[in-house]
Design goal:
This protein is of the alpha/beta class.
Length: 607
Amino acid sequence: MTCHVLGISALYHDAAAALVSDGEIVAAAQEERFSRRKHDPSLPLGAINDCLEQAFLDASDLAAVVFYEDLALAFDRALKSLLQCAPASLPQWLRAAPSLLGGKPLVGAALRALLGPDIRLLTVPHHFAHAASAFYPSPYEEAAILVMDGVGEWASTSIGRGRGKRVELLRQINYPHSLGLLYSAFTAFCGFKVNSGEYKLMGLAPYGRPVYAGLIRERLIDLRPDGSFRLHSEYFGYLGGSCMTNARFHALFGGPPRAAEARITRREMDLAASIQLVLEEAVLALAAQARALTGLRRLVLAGGVALNCVANGKLLRSSLFDEIWIQPAAGDAGGALGAALLATHGYFELPRHPPVDGRDAQRGSMLGPAYASAEVRAFLDRAGLPYEHIDDAAALARRIAAALAAGQVVGLLSGRMEFGPRALGARSILGDPRSAQMQSRMNLKIKYRESFRPFAPVVLAERAADWFELDRDSPYMLLVAPVCGASSAALAEGEDDMLQLLARKRSALPAITHVDGSARVQTLRREQHPLLHGVLCEFERLSGCPVLVNTSFNVRGEPIVCSPRDAYRCFMRTGMELLVLEDCVLQRAAQPPWVEDEDWRQIHALD
């Protein structure tokens, strides 16, 4: 009898569900893609339903439902932390009490109400879920494990080891000492939103100089040679207040935090560069300790800090480990997958499928819903939207590549949706990386986001070494590497206009080359996404370049699109010229005028 296990993460941020059957990852998705609420923390009803529907299962078929956190330990940590700071922590207690006393303790009742009173409900510790999500899908029979995030119950950092079907944690650093919270404090201080703006801080870092790094090491974090560390809590506000930082932190760095949407100054650039450097030092020290503790030459990573692809690139080039593998959904969403895998191999003691040909078991992280051509055409026909149907894959790839070579921006919905924060070809916006105007155009006219933020390239895996200083595959866009032949650019003393740097051509691929000459690389093989691979091959035939800009199919403040309806709405609200929905091609110029209230209600009702 097949053992179906459903993993759940919820009630903090990035809620998700994942289904594992006899040790095989069947489906996984984040709730935000269905609810259309970015980082949706609520019980993932849409994601649960999708996982069950993809496997043609009812809730009664599940061997267990597994929650990614030990709720009693989480309550213990939150309550003790708030009591430690009383009475100043009273406002935070009033905000946290509904979740601590209501939502989280009642998650079991809510799941039983949804899935049935007889389900077997298990919980696993948060960092064990992260560790499992990193090790079990990895292509390694044995590996060191490094988990780094904000906080899970008490743990913020864990070092462990995986072997066969066994995962064990060997060392732990506890809250309030946390690299994730340290980085988030600077995220908030620089005017970005915690739990989503950390990517922006990482992207801002190359514009600045690490002039505050010494001050951070001296006043904020005591980083020791063995990788352990302690934060000086008197500079932070998250222990007993509602803010990440406090007046002492503000005084240390020359004044109050930057207001959201205010102009970014040299201070924010230098702060970003400084905390990025300190984070990289901490990650390398922890990795060295993991190597010393385990004696292993392979490393797997998870937790939100593992999404810092600049640090990952530095770790790879350090040669501390021969190989590293990073969970594509390294944040809390991936905890759902880890919880399901941990129960499968730990509680039910099912054997782990051995890695095949060095490939991981994540299936390209294409684990969400897909839409058949007939479904797409039915949607378009009902809505009366003009489109071209191209059912030959080679012809479709040629059509897309020709549009890209002509300078058009293409929205692509193709196959199963990605699990994790990165678009890998299933829900992507594509562009020509050779264009000097493409970065600013896509940022300002399509994504509606800050102009300084870099775009990532997707490149044919067999051609990657010709364009990037990268000697291995990077299928999940989680490694930063230098662009071959690129130059770096820096602001002169006293300058703080980032547009000066953006205007300077740094390589033959200016749209994907960051100001430090680097890029966050995705390598692609045919089996990972046949259509996008075909587009890259055709684009290389037309242009001599096997690289494209690949960014997520969404606009600022919205989740990545899930359905054809989501994709059409995003397409019509931006400056994209072409939309590909499976094998249907829509030209922007041929579409009826877009009127948000009227037209969107009509299409929404038809779907």
